[in-house]
């Protein structure tokens, strides 16, 4: 009978070892080859570490005979060897050490390894990390594949020790960063400040500009001094421009920007070319309830108020002015700050005689002066006479 002592039972058992992907086992470096390194993993087959890990210095300072842990990547290879990874084993060891310090709410870094229709997959040590789709970002996600092999910062939402799993959130980090940026933005923004911003989208009424993570609005009326141009005519999507802040609403969290406020108003030069008293020819552009808007000169506009339309009473300005009609008018007022110009028709017309007479009569005033002269030396009583003297314009009889 053969004694079992003559057999190495452990060596025999190792020859029947089974391997599966993801399994972490001990390995000993045998030798380096041109395209990788051969390691002994204790069974009938050797393990092979691909050259990519050598390039990443996963085996730096490692020599034949050194032992370390590896993770099985694939059990089937053309060479007959089992593909293993020391880098992944190192990551698991490091991750497991980190797990002991992590708690819900902490932030750490993950490398995204895979994606599903429900979210992103990563690993931390021996724990599977899942980032649900709803926790990836508040922004539009074109494709989850764009996250594969990328390192991301994420907050720990849940740690399940029983199932070796972690649920994390990238969005929570984004929201925290955004809140910090918004606080800094509102502390620094003020009217008349010049800011840089990126055009993110257009609307019928203007353009939305990203300024330090906060959406601000350029209304079409602030795009150009040329009123025929809209924001989309002077701005390009995704390009960055400078703007002047013209209004800050801290309660409503709204900021209004202007492009044209960065440039001199062409009206400043135009309005300097005219003065009060000038006689101009202008075209009636539109009729308003209280007057008519007249264009004249080099792009100037003025208002013919209904009170300045005639010496006679005019209820509606369209009684004396029609759209498209050319009129000769006199400039009676100029407000350089607001570019408002007042025009008059009646200032160029002689006042009718009948109105002169009526106005002259309305200006005569008759006053009465009552002198209650009481001579106390004559012991005059309450019945003494009062002297009433009519006042005229000051001429003596």
Task: List the topology elements.
Blueprint: H1 9-14, E1 24-33, E2 36-40, E3 46-50, H2 51-55, E4 67-74, E5 82-85, H3 86-99, E6 107-111, E7 114-116, E8 119-124, E9 127-132, E10 151-160, E11 165-169, H4 171-188, E12 194-203, E13 206-211, E14 214-219, H5 231-234, E15 240-249, E16 254-258, H6 266-271, E17 279-288, E18 291-296, E19 300-305, E20 326-335, E21 340-344, H7 353-362, E22 367-371, E23 387-391
Parallel strand pairs: 3-5, 9-11, 14-16, 19-21
Antiparallel strand pairs: 1-2, 1-4, 2-3, 4-5, 6-10, 7-8, 8-9, 10-11, 12-13, 12-15, 13-14, 15-16, 17-18, 17-20, 18-19, 20-21, 22-23
Short description:
By secondary structure, this protein is an alpha+beta fold. It has helices at residues 9-14, 51-55, 86-99, 171-188, 231-234, 266-271, 353-362, and strands at residues 24-33, 36-40, 46-50, 67-74, 82-85, 107-111, 114-116, 119-124, 127-132, 151-160, 165-169, 194-203, 206-211, 214-219, 240-249, 254-258, 279-288, 291-296, 300-305, 326-335, 340-344, 367-371, 387-391.
